[in-house]
Amino acid sequence: MTNSTESFDYIVVGGGSAGCALVNRLSSNSTNKVLLLEAGSKGHFLSRVPVSFSLLIDNPAANWCYRSEPEAGTNERQIPIPRGKLLGGSSAINGLVYVRGQQLDYDTWAQLGNRGWSYADVLPFFKKMESFEKGESEYRGRSGPLRITEVVDQNPIYEQLFKAGGALGIVRNDDYNGADQEGFARTQTTISGGRRMSADFAYLRPIRRRRNLTIKTRALVTRLLFNQKVCVGVEAIIGKRTVPFEARKEVILSGGAINSPQILELSGVGQPQILEKNDIPLVQAINGVGENLRDHIAPRLVFRITKPGIAYNDAARGMNLLKEILKYGINRSGFLNLPSAPVLGFFKTRTELAGPDIQVHFIPYRVVLENGKRKLGEEPGITCTVNQNQPESVGSVHIKSPDPQQHPAIRYNFLSSRLDIDTLVAGVRLVRDIMNTDEMQMYCGEEMSPGSDCSSDEDILAFIRNKAETAYHPVGSCKMGKDAKSVVDEKLRVHQIKNLRIADASIMPTLTSGNTNGPCMMIGEKCADFIMNH
Predict the structure, then answer these.
(1) Backbone angles phi, psi at 10, to 5 degrees
(2) Which of 166, 286, 381, 453 has the fewest CB atoms inside 10 Å of its own CB, making it the most exposed?
């Protein structure tokens, strides 16, 4: 540090879902001087259009485009790992699906020794952050910055799915983010007025003129700065310069499950053998850094739609696309206003379970995934994406070199748990049961992928190993806890280091049952509360 070094009370590294919430709350106190450093850009012109998730998912202008290391469990494929490269982070490119998870998820975190993280503890923060269009209740908030709406599209296949569920004893759930998650439901989305509600638009845009807040984009943090075991600032590449910033009170990492462990290791915090291999001086040995990585691996089944005008596969082509653009431009409706999945299902594969163990996204068009690129198939279909809510398989994220611009090695270790295999196979079979009901056969024909000849458990597992990608929910690589593999305590403070916290998906001890964007914002809210009120 020098006399010319810019100094702040709090430095937040990463402007993603948690970081935006955190910055909003910290800067609400005018005596706090706050700096937000975001490695990506301010935004992308397509981001506010909901259907942009399909266009930005492999676009390097908006996406870091990570890939996993080849692994035997997924037949040596390098699985794409999209991560947002904009203010708002992945909430600026995601599928706009809002899911809190189950009450049991958070009670499990508390049971693992993380006091203050039970469902009763986190519920007030979910309510504080959201403005749910159906109004305030015991479980829902109505006055928060994040506007949440239910899918308004009226495709007849949605009601048919609900009827098919009824035929199998599956209830329709009016609020899967309320008292109980189980059942079929119209998706709750981070869409308002036909526009994406990213964390940037919910939390940052309304406060950018605050005099005590500085936001710097295209600022790649290369390392944390320490005085002994005290974090005193960060160093970042801005343009062609390497610039130090001083933190008088705290630095909070909000880089996400990929970048937060990477920054720790680049700074000398992590497993000594990894740091030594990369010629990085050890500041503090914490063996859990980069470990416990989890994600939802997601096989996608496709069924042909036989009734004309139901699937949206023609909506993005030729004159039909022009019609959809006009429809969206005039009243913010139609195909361009859809989230990645307009209908969700949370199901049990075994009746004795306390809660659903799989989530299914039902998409009213055929999705073709080719090497991470998502596009509409030419033939009309319905895509059913299955993921296991609570996978047991864990992997890792570790640096490959001391170069902060080189992507880390991401190893998921998918399908290493027998429970994960059995649950996903059972999930595929349950989706087939739904799609083979009389109610769905009125609309659907053959199974296009993987196909009816994929019938045995071994066949289904081979399909998953060969084709499944992720649901884009990496978490857990700097987990919260008290055991030897934990990185932060229950107040998100990094073990053995002063004035350093982590607030993002990496702190989750286990995955939440569903999409992770909402829980990440809750983590940002809760971290701000720890700092300001405790």
Answers:
(1) -130, 135
(2) 453
Return the pLDDT at 404. 97
Kindly report the average pLDDT of the chain as a whole number.
Answer: 96
DSSP string, 9-46: EEEEE--SHHHHHHHHHHTTSTT--EEEE-SSBS--TT
Quote the tokens at residue 320: 């039909």
Question: Given a cut of 90, is residue 241 above it in pLDDT?
Answer: yes
Tell me, what amino acid is at 213?
A: L
pLDDT interval class at 338 (50, 70, 90): very high
Of the candidates 247, 178, 339, the one whose C-alpha atom is nearest the C-alpha of residue 37 is 247
Q: Residue 491 and residue 91: Cα distance in Å, rounded?
A: 24
Tokens for 525, please give them.
């809210």
Tokens 């934990």 appear where? 486
As a whole number of angstroms, the distance between CA 83 and CA 78 comes to 15
| 371 — pLDDT class (breaks 50, 70, 90) | low
Q: Where are the alpha helices (DSSP H) in 332-456?
A: 418-435, 438-441
**What are residue 81's DSSP bridge partners?**
66
Residue 381 bridge partners (DSSP): 304
Q: Report yes or no: 477 and 463 within 8 Å, Cβ to Cβ.
A: no
Instruction: Confirm if 24 and 36 have CB atoms less than 8 A apart.
Output: no
H-type alpha helices, 278-395: 318-331
Strands 195-196 and 300-305: unpaired
Strands (E) across 160-317 are located at 183-186, 188-189, 191-192, 195-196, 213-216, 219-227, 230-238, 241-253, 269-270, 284-285, 291-293, 297-298, 300-305
Residue type, 12: V
Handedness of CA 193, 195, 198, 203 (dihedral sign): negative
Which of 44, 296, 473, 495 is catalytic? The answer is: 473
Tallying the residues shown for the chain, one arrives at 534
pLDDT band, very low/low/confident/very high, at 372 (cuts 50, 70, 90) = low
Assign residue 310 a region: left if phi > 0, alpha if psi is -120 to 50, beta otherwise? alpha
Measure the CA–CA gap between 261 and 5, rounded to whole angstroms.
26
Q: Would residue 495 show up in a list of annotated catalytic residues for this protein? A: no
Q: How far is residue 75's CA from residue 467's CA, in Å, rounded to a whole number?
A: 9
**What token pair was written down for 211?**
């005099």
Angstrom CA distances, 38 to 244, 253, 438, 493, stand at 15, 11, 51, 21
